[in-house]
Write a structure and sequence with these properties.
The chain folds into two domains: 73 residues, Ubiquitin-like (UB roll); 90 residues, DNA polymerase, domain 1, CATH 1.10.150.120. It contains six helices and five strands. The chain has a five-stranded mixed β-sheet. Helix 3 packs across helix 6. The radius of gyration is 16 Å and the shape is globular.
Length: 173
């Protein structure tokens, strides 16, 4: 049984009780995904499964046979950091940095959700084909990712700038 993690196939652990988080950090040496609360409340362990965000501390690794997992380490491309990673640096979207990987991974998936028209609790037009990422929309959609340092303004600015810039690029293409 194997799982694809950041484009590489790896064998799933023989022990079915191993969480996806522990597989990533302890067995595969991918320390970017953080163990915060280990109860699914803080979002520090957020990863993507087939492009959708999940809390990896609450998921068993064996559940993901044949699926594609992307961690913070898998977001960067051959040409360097993901645009959102660069924006976090530019907008001081972190202080201690502990929550940053989960924030970034979650924001990447969140932008995809809005682009597909999946509404949030604050979406005004729930029938829209794509939902604009206003500050209020970003704050609501990112509310499951906690930052104990309080870098929320920089986080929202980085997310808003990154995905507004991508929208402009799509329109120009």
């Amino acid at each position: 049984m194997s799982i694809t993690i950041n484009g590489q196939r790896v064998e799933a652990p023989g022990d079915p009780r191993v969480s996806l988080l522990d597989l990533l950090r302890d067995r595969l040496g991918l320390p970017g995904t953080k163990k915060g609360c280990n109860q699914g409340a803080c979002g520090a362990c957020t990863v993507l499964v087939d492009g959708e965000r999940i809390i990896s501390c609450l998921a068993l690794a064996v559940q993901f046979e044949g699926r594609e997992i992307t961690t913070i380490e898998g977001l960067a491309g051959a040409d360097g950091l993901h645009p959102l990673q660069r924006a976090f640096v530019e907008h001081d979207g972190f202080q201690c940095g502990y929550c940053t990987p989960g924030q970034i991974v979650s924001a990447v998936a969140m932008a995809g959700e809005a682009a597909r028209g999946l509404p949030s609790a604050v979406t005004s037009d729930i029938a829209a084909a794509a939902i604009p990422l206003t500050r209020e929309e970003i704050a609501e959609r990112m509310s499951g990712n906690l930052c104990r340092c309080g870098a929320y303004n920089g986080i929202v600015e980085a997310v808003a700038e990154t995905f507004a810039a991508q929208k402009r690029e799509e329109v120009a293409a």
